[in-house]
Amino acid sequence: MKLSLLQTHGLKILLTIIKSGKETLTASEISKIEGLKTGYVGKILFMLRKAGIVSTVRGKTGGYYLAEDKKNITLYDVLAALSPNKTEIELCPNIKEGEDCTHSIDCAIRPVFYEAHNYFKHLAKGITLEEMANRERDIMRKVLNMKEQYYKRRDHEKVL
């Protein structure tokens, strides 16, 4: 699974808004901080606004702000909002819509991609923007704890 530049930049933009300490930031201010073109930042903010992740205030002191508390917005929410086709991650690049894969009967790739996809989805739904705005050491501790819990649960399910 590969995050698009749109998704990566969208996350950075949201973290910039959170860490700024200001009530709102304009697209121009964000573009200067992140070193991105203002039009591109505007495109990302439009997508995030359409998904209900950011809102705007018009006027001289206007700009963008989080539409919800940063505790309630997950990494998964952001990635889904900035996904070009709004679908789940492709499990296999060889599977095309309406076509059979030559390995559809006995495929060694499918179970690996499927498990990787499920783990990533679990991880992304369990991490909030508030947690991502913390120091790297803190979020790493959270990720490792989630990994441990995920595999304990999976092992428990296999026993049942």
What does it look like?
Helices cover 55% and strands 5% of the residues. It is mainly α. The chain has a single domain (5-159), classed as Winged helix-like DNA-binding domain superfamily/Winged helix DNA-binding domain (Arc Repressor Mutant, subunit A, Orthogonal Bundle). It has a two-stranded antiparallel sheet. Helix 1 (5-19) packs across helix 3. It is globular. The model has no long low-confidence stretch (mean pLDDT 84).
Strand order of the largest sheet: 1-2
Instruction: Determine the structural class based on helices, strands and strand pairing.
Output: mainly alpha
Portion of residues within helices? 55-70%
CATH architecture descriptor name = Orthogonal Bundle
What's the CATH superfamily, by name?
Answer: Winged helix-like DNA-binding domain superfamily/Winged helix DNA-binding domain
Question: For this structure, what is the CATH class?
Answer: Mainly Alpha
Shape: globular
Strand content: 5-15%
Number of helical stretches of at least 4 residues? 7
List the helices and strands in order.
HHHEEHHHH
Number of domains: 1
Biggest sheet overview: 2 strands, antiparallel
The averaged pLDDT comes out at 84
The CATH topology? Arc Repressor Mutant, subunit A
The end-to-end distance, rounded to whole angstroms, is: 30 Å
Determine Rg (CA atoms, Å): 19 Å
Strand count: 2
